[in-house]
Amino acid sequence: MSIASRTNETKWDRRYKDALDAAAEAFAERGYLGSSTKDIADKLGIQQGSLYYYLPSKEQALAAICELGVQKFVARLGEILDSNGPSSEKLRAAIANHLMPLTMKPEGDYVRVFVHHRHQLPSGPRQAVAALARRYHNLIERLFAEAVRCGDFRSDLNPTLAAHAMLGLCNSVTGARTQPAGASIEAIIDEYADILTRGMNVDRAKTTNNKSQPASRR
Amino acid sequence: MSIASRTNETKWDRRYKDALDAAAEAFAERGYLGSSTKDIADKLGIQQGSLYYYLPSKEQALAAICELGVQKFVARLGEILDSNGPSSEKLRAAIANHLMPLTMKPEGDYVRVFVHHRHQLPSGPRQAVAALARRYHNLIERLFAEAVRCGDFRSDLNPTLAAHAMLGLCNSVTGARTQPAGASIEAIIDEYADILTRGMNVDRAKTTNNKSQPASRR
Amino acid sequence: MSIASRTNETKWDRRYKDALDAAAEAFAERGYLGSSTKDIADKLGIQQGSLYYYLPSKEQALAAICELGVQKFVARLGEILDSNGPSSEKLRAAIANHLMPLTMKPEGDYVRVFVHHRHQLPSGPRQAVAALARRYHNLIERLFAEAVRCGDFRSDLNPTLAAHAMLGLCNSVTGARTQPAGASIEAIIDEYADILTRGMNVDRAKTTNNKSQPASRR
Amino acid sequence: MSIASRTNETKWDRRYKDALDAAAEAFAERGYLGSSTKDIADKLGIQQGSLYYYLPSKEQALAAICELGVQKFVARLGEILDSNGPSSEKLRAAIANHLMPLTMKPEGDYVRVFVHHRHQLPSGPRQAVAALARRYHNLIERLFAEAVRCGDFRSDLNPTLAAHAMLGLCNSVTGARTQPAGASIEAIIDEYADILTRGMNVDRAKTTNNKSQPASRR
DNA sequence: TATGAATGAGCCTTCATTCAT
DNA sequence: GATGAATGAAGGCTCATTCAT
User: Fold this and answer.
1) What is the set of domains in chain A, with CATH numbers?
2) What is the pLDDT of residues C99-142, one digit of tens each?
3) Alpha carbon distance C36, C40 (integer Å)
4) Mutual angle of helices B159-175 and B185-198, in 10-degree steps
5) Chain E footprint positions (protein CB, under 7 Å)
6) Residue C211, CA distances (Å) to A214, C202, C217, D154, D201 in order
7) Which of A137, A200, A204 to mutate to test the interface with B (most CBs of B within 10 A)?
8) A147, B171: Cβ pair inside 8 Å?
């Protein structure tokens, strides 16, 4: 008895996942409308017509990618919020949660497709996906609201706009065709987390790590 | 003598501009590939075939939009950089320069198309446009480099990544299909400028406006 | 009183002729279907729409070119047939009549259009033109028939096929995109007349010019 | 095992050939520009869009027809030149080689398309086809040059012009919309071969076969 | 399971023609 | 006499999708 059958994963299931991965890759590379079903089939090494044995339609593939692709995202973000630690640490973890998958296949493609192409869905599936996106946004927003409430972040910070800013900043990395010259994802995460927490102005408190600042200033 | 003839602007010139505006609007709404030439013609109130009296091709329209649409952008950014004042003010002005047009027709559409659809151009025109984009990016990067050099911004700020961050943050506003709930562009500009300069952490120096900070620290 | 008005040729008449010439040139260069009305208008230096002040339609222009263009042809061929002289001389004159105009503007274009594009006419005008063509063909055929009857040409020569051969040979010059390397039209006329009358075989009667043969044989 | 599989000819191969044949027929009947892809598809009994399962483009079909259609031609002409026999016989065989296919489907269409429409190819493929055409022309020219050298044909015959004449004469048959009234292709071949070799003038030597003439006159 | 063949709708573009001015 | 503006009908081509095998 093979592992596949033990886990109840049929060959079809495996190939379905492959097809979705291929579609995600194609969509990420050339856009949803710019990708033909032949592009996807080519990546899978099958004929165009055969694709329909796995995918009901190109549109449905997009929907599935958007839905499946971000669920883990949301789940992990929830864990981050539930954890303990200073808000700046949570923010940093949230940024990392958002950006780390970009370097991985196929996760990165799923994220990219979700971020850039979910709006091309017809209104039915779009709303389902939009709900997921809103949930994600709300989690981020809550992070900021709590950080303000507990005094970690400035009291004049608008949590809604802050959430937009953080997501926008992260999503911009997602769409980057030219990777910021030679910068690793880790470096980007560090820099962006620093910018969001400490800002760009010269630090009046001479410390590199803001976690220890409050203590040293009090 | 009509105004049109005084300014040497023929009817064709006016309608050409209209056609470009209509194309920009369509592209901004449905994407380049998602917009049919009929969509554009409908916005103009003419037949699809008549569009070609003004536009040589859909592709060429995209190229023209991208090129024309950002030239004023770059020019104004140059002026901002040449001005005097603290770096945080320059940054704020640069952000405003980037975001203010978004509220205007047709400027906003031109910006959106430039940001999101310039990559769909065939390599010829794409490179011309890419050069413009790089120039813009370099100006922003220089802003940060100089700010660091003159001590306005943290010495450990990476100007290249900072430029990516600032542009990414601004461009994310560009793509927002749902305007951040009830927030005016001006509010967004303020908040984003604050976030980038002061960060989110609680201010160790109790000032709301960083412009007055240097004074209070001297 | 100008010449134009004396001859009752209005400016319109002159421009109409110009338009036909331009159309003939365009058709000869790029074919009937390959020529746009803009091509014709460009040659005339007017706008596409203005063409219709002179030409009722592109199709009608083709018809007019075909009809007008060959009438002089037929007339001159009649004169040649009515003349006296040996048949080989008449044949030579007929060939010259057919080929000489090719070097001239706009006559050459009219001939080319008649030969190559008359079949694209819709059946109405086509038949009118076909009648002209048949008349021309019949004249040639009569030349051969008489030449055979009077003993100038071989008695086993089929006049119908001979007419086809002669016309085909001449018309092939008409369509030549590559002028036979450096050969003048006059040289071609000489060579082709020689080939048709004397053939290619070595001459049993040692004369280089068949014109002098009758004398030497009498 | 079917014949198809024995010869490794797939259904696609067969239908591709059919598509080319249909295109050749359409082009021969209505010209390249005058034939729509729908015309071709109709001949095949499929939908217009389905044509593209076999043909990459209308243009490419023209190129393929021109190239494939004449290769056998050239090959056979080479054999004729290599054979032994009097020049007039070779010429006759060359004429037959050129004209016989005209009566056959689809060969005749391929020839007609090659002769009349190869010039509508874009310069890339056109040059490839032009090379074939030049090769063919050169073979004919060589036939005449050798015939002159060995004394079979008149010493004052210009081989280049003679090749143009022979090809022009043959090609005119190709374009004939009205088959020379009731004349079989064989009759045309005979008559044209006679005209080219013996000419039209009365034969001073009363023999039908020119091979024996010199002997009988000496 | 997967393929080959075909469909049919839609898209971008061209172009002959019209007509008010 | 001529123009500029617009039309509407094709035309070539792509592509998501279907289905018998």
Assistant:
1) 58-203 (1.10.357.10)
2) 999 999 899 999 999 999 999 999 999 999 999 999 999 999 99
3) 7
4) 160
5) 1-19
6) 120, 17, 11, 17, 11
7) A200
8) no
